[in-house]
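Example 430.
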Amino acid sequence: MLENYISKTSKSKALYERAKNFLPAGVSYAIRYFEPYPFYTAKAKGSKLIDVNGNEYVDFWLGHTALILGHSPPAVMDAVKKQIEIGTHFGTSHELEIELAEQIAKMVPSAEMIRFTNSGTEANMYAVRLARACTGRNKIVKFEGGWHGGYDSLHVGVKYPFDVPESAGLTAGALQDTIVAPFNDLEGVREKVRNEAVAAIVVEPMLGAGGCIPAEKEFLKGLRELCDEKSILLIFDEVVTGFRLAPGGGQQYYGVIPDLTVFGKILGGGFPIGAFCGRQDVMERLNTLVYERPHYSFHGGTFSANPISMTAGLATLKLLEDGQLISRMNRTGEKIRGQIKEIFEADDVDVQVTGVGSLFSAHFTVEEVKDTRAVFRADRKKLAEYHLNLIANGVFFSPTHMGALSTAHSEADIQKLLSETEKYANLCGK
Ligand SMILES: Cc1ncc(COP(=O)(O)O)c(C=O)c1O
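Predicted structure in complex with pyridoxal-5'-phosphate:
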């Protein structure tokens, strides 16, 4: 399988050798590296990536799950082309930022007021700061396996074993106010916060990088109740689930409304973005006309609300708003999860297929996968092998192993995924 990949990707190998000289590990984000070297994309359209050797891949990674309409969707591209002529970066107030904020408020149950950032990381950072400013408390709770970007206070407890620092350079000071709690375990969370003054609980409605593991509805409801009891702010990190599980994201899908919500990815329509939003009384802490230093909570950024991301995001949300495309993708997601499980089971391969809506992943284990600990107990070598096998045969999954659907995926794309899965299952069957 490795030989097959290497024989098809000679130009990528040469580019990788060049990249290593100037980009540490040859990449711009560690998760983009995979053995023996990543292929280099020359262009992308719809559901496909084409590499520099001309190989075509059905793309189930979709730019870190951001591209819900596929690569370069015409409606978004047309809007962006027009905007490029009008202006790419004003650095002043402009109407598009109001339009996108209004659109988010229309679609997302918790979104009364919104601020834009350039990434999900930044949006989480500002949301945590805002929660601390509003509550006057320092502690925050996040979950084992939860990934919220590289902001120091949230960059803990991501990979198992959870007590190993996620990165050098994180100070004890940055982490001392972060409590890491078990996912899908309400009693465990209650135990962790029993004697603590907590500003916010930050949770993904579905652990994305942590294994594509949905929160149980009762867990999210329980977190809501716990937050209400203790006047803690509940923050949903919907960078992956936002505008994907439902037009109003995971909160609409599960019927649990947070105080603050963080977005990224899909919201930018293929361009860089992040946003945090929520209850008006909480968001008002950002209002420098009402609060003075040291009482206001700062947020800003040179490219915040840049008109290209606003335009692309607006065109994207308008297409998702009525929920029809999302429902269709969710049905396909359900079908894929069932079929992948069936395929492996037909060959006696122990597998758990996780995910929700249009997101899916596989874990080679007999154990039910309800948290990231189970993901790390599963056969992760086999998962990497399965996906490398898919890549070598023209189906792309990133090393995070999460698959995402877009409106651009055709029935033939799905069949390709399933038939390549079947070939791999036959290879590794008992
Ligand atoms: C749930 C979640 N939150 C936050 C982030 C960070 O977003 P960004 O990479 O845009 O900084 C990610 C990125 O993958 C994510 O999956």
